[in-house]
């Protein structure tokens, strides 16, 4: 059976992910897909689209950095700010692969995959859901952190409140590890802080 949003069946997608990701990353993708589907239901978004986005969000995560850079340079338009930290290179490449290798043509899915690491200014609810699912899925993420986010998601303006917590933690983590912080991250954090 083919999914509504890909040219491959779910079984074919899972087989590809199993072959191209580490066991932990594969487990993370399954957890993100299920979590995204649950959040989509909670926030009246398309559950099947969210599931596919969650499943494929890290499909390029285990590519060598050189391969990611090569694809970005040859096939994609990526802003210099996004190239500050190699840990985010896989996001635009995963969106590219979702389209090229899995036949995903839905702009909402591709955008959610594209922005699941850094986020972007003016994210849609669907993009926020996939972003958050990546951070709180139950298979590989910290349980206490996930619990805190899930609690906030039940509050009024929950998506934005949950995003603010994620950005606070991300910035703290980057500072602690002495890694560069993309200006987009600071901009989004400032906006969320203003609109909480």
Write a brief structural summary.
By secondary structure, the chain is mainly alpha-helical.
CATH class identity of the domain at 10-142: Mainly Alpha
Structural class: mainly alpha
- Number of helix segments? 10
**Which whole number gives the mean pLDDT?**
94
Q: Which superfamily, in CATH terms, is the homologous superfamily of the domain at 10-142?
A: Hypothetical protein af1432
The helix fraction, in percent, is 55-70%
Principal-axes geometry comes out as globular
Question: Within the CATH hierarchy, at the fold level, what is the topology of the domain at 10-142?
Answer: Hypothetical protein af1432
Distance between the termini: 43 Å
Low-confidence parts lasting 5 or more residues at pLDDT below 50? none
Fraction in beta strands: under 5%
Written overview of the protein:
This protein is mostly helical and 196 residues long. The chain has a domain at 10-142: Hypothetical protein af1432 (Orthogonal Bundle). The chain is built from ten helices and no strands. It has helices spanning 10-20, 23-42, 47-56, 65-75, 90-100, 107-114, 125-136, 143-153, 158-176, 183-194. Helix 2 (23-42) packs antiparallel against helix 3 (47-56) and helix 3 (47-56) crosses helix 6 (107-114). It is globular and about 40 Å long. It starts with 9 loop residues before the first helix and ends with a helix.
């Amino acid at each position: 059976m083919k999914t509504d949003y890909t040219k491959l069946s779910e079984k074919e997608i899972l087989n590809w992910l199993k072959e191209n990701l580490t066991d932990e990353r594969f487990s993370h993708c399954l957890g993100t897909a299920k979590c995204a589907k649950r959040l989509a239901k909670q926030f009246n978004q398309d559950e099947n689209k969210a599931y596919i986005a969650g499943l494929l969000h890290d499909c390029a995560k285990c590519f060598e950095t050189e391969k990611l850079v090569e694809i970005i340079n040859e096939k994609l338009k990526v802003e210099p700010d996004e190239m500050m930290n190699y840990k985010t290179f896989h996001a635009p490449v995963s969106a590219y692969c979702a389209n090229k290798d899995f036949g995903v043509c839905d702009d909402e899915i591709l955008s959610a995959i594209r922005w699941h690491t850094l986020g972007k200014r003016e994210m849609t609810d669907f993009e926020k859901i996939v972003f958050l699912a990546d951070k709180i899925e139950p298979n590989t993420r910290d349980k206490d952190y996930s619990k805190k986010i899930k609690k906030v998601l039940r509050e009024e303006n929950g998506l934005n409140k949950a995003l603010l917590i994620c950005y606070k933690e991300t910035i703290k983590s980057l500072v602690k590890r002495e890694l560069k912080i993309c200006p987009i991250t600071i901009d989004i954090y400032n906006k969320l802080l203003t609109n909480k």
